[in-house]
Amino acid sequence: MAPAAPSGARRPFPAASELARHWDLDPSVCFLNHGSFGACPRAVLAEQSRLRARMEAEAVRFFVEEYEALIDAARGALAALVGARAEDLVFVPNATTGVATALENLAAGLRPGDEVLATTHEYPGCMTNLRRVAGGGGAVVVPAAPPFPASSSSEAVEAVLSKVTARTRLALVSHITAPSAMVLPVERIVPALEARGVVTIVDGAHAAGQVPLDLGALGASFYTANCHKWLCTPKGTAFLHIRPDRQAGFRPLVLSNSAEKPRPGRKHLLTEFDYAGTSDYTGWLSVPAAISTMASLAPGGWAGVMQRNHDLAVAARAVVCRALGVEAPAPEGMLGSMAAVFLPPHEGVRQARVVARPTRYHDALQDALLDRWRIQVPVWSIPGDARRLVRLSAQLYNAPGQYEYLAAALAEELAREREL
C-alpha cells in the first residue's frame, strides 16, 4: 500500500512500479532523481557484500591471488556491454576522475595560446578540472553553446564544430548533458573533431545504461562513464576507455607499488589502474552482477530496459509540460532516460525574489517539493542561463503516476511562488 499523502499535498501519494521491490528505496519518497547518484538493486548489493566478506576473510590471499581474475572478469563483462576491447578499459571511481585523468595526461602538451573546447552544458566538476589544466599550460577554454531549446541534434553538431580553430587542441563533450538531459550526437561530433586533429574526451557519465554504446566504433581518444548511475552498480564505480594509440605513457593520477613493477604477459596500463593501493574495489567487481540483474528485469534485456525507460521519460515530460503549459525543449530523439523541462517564469521582480530564497538544494522549489510533497527531483539551471529547469529521471522502479503527482505539485508550488 502506498504511503499517505504528505502534509500539504492534495493528491494520494503515488505508488512506485512493481519492479521497485528489487531496490531498497524509501517508500515514503517519490524518487524521481535516479540521474544524480543512481540506485543499486538489492541483488547487486548482496553480491558486493559477498565479495567484501571474501576480501575480509583473508585480505592477503584476496588481493595477491584472487583479485586479478575478478577484476578481469568484471572488465570483460563491461567491455561486452559497451562495445570495447577489455584491454582498453580501466576502472575509475567516477566519470569526473576519468575526465581529470585524461586531462592530466594531456596537460604537458598544452602551450600558451592553445584552445580547449567545451560545451556550456558540461558538468561543473569536469569544467573545474579543465580550467585547471588549461590554465596551467596557458591555454584558453572556448565555450560552445548547443541551443536549448533545440529543434534538432544537428544544431549541437554545428555549435561545437563552429568553434574549432587551428589552435584547438582538445575538446570535452558530454554524451548526455547533466543539466539539460540532451543526448548529443557524439557519433557525428567525435569523428569530425578527430579528423581535424582535435583530441576528444567524451564525458559519458549518464550514457552507460541509458543509450547503446559502441566505443570501438565511436573512436574517441578517451571516453569515461559512470556505472553507478544507469547500470545500477554500487557507488564509486566508473570506467575510462583509452583508444589504443593513446595508451603509451598513459598513467593514473595515483601511482602505487605496482607502477615500477611490470608484470610479464600483462598490460602495464591495467596493472597500474587496477590496483592503486589498499581500497575496497568490490563495487568494480560487482559490475557483472549489475549487468545481469538489470538485464533480467525487462523483456529484451538491456535493450528492453533502455526502451522502457526512454518511453517513460518521454511520457513523463509530456505530463509535466501539459500541466505547466510549456513546450518540450528538445526532440524525443535527443532523450534517453531523462528529460528536462523549463519552468514558466514569474514576472521580473518576483522571479528574482523566488530564485534568491535560501535553499539546501539547488533551488528552494526543490526543498518545497521534498518537504511538502516528499518528491525528490532536481530543480536547477544550465550554467550561465537563469531559466529554471526540472530534470526528470525514469528508471525501472518508477511509474507514470509518480510524474502526474509531480506535475500537480509543480503547478501548486509555482502558484504559491507567484504569491510571494
| Count of distinct strands | 12
- As a percent range, the share of strand residues is 5-15%
Integer average pLDDT: 96
Question: Secondary-structure element sequence?
Answer: EHHHEHEHEHEHEHEEHHHHEHHEEEH
**Terminus-to-terminus distance:** 36 Å
| Uncertain regions spanning at least 5 consecutive residues | none
Computed CA radius of gyration, to the nearest angstrom: 22 Å
Give me the number of helical elements: 15
Order of strands in the sheet with most strands: 2-8-7-6-5-3-4
Structural class: alpha/beta
Approximately how much helix is present in the residues? 40-55%
| Net shape | globular
- Biggest sheet record: 7 strands, mixed
Quickly list its features.
420 residues, alpha/beta, 3-stranded antiparallel sheet, 15 helices
Structure description:
By secondary structure, the chain is α/β, with parallel strands linked by helices. Helices cover about 40% and strands about 10% of the residues. The protein has helices spanning about 35, 40-55, 60-80, 95-105, 125-135, 155-160, 185-195, 215-220, 270-275, 280-285, 285-295, 300-325, 350-355, 365-375, 400-420; strands at about 30, 90, 115-120, 140-145, 170-175, 200-205, 220-225, 240, 340, 375, 380, 390-395. Strands 2-8-7-6-5-3-4 form a 7-stranded mixed beta sheet, sandwiched between helices. Strands 9-12-11 form a 3-stranded antiparallel beta sheet, with helices on one face. It is globular, with a radius of gyration of 22 Å.
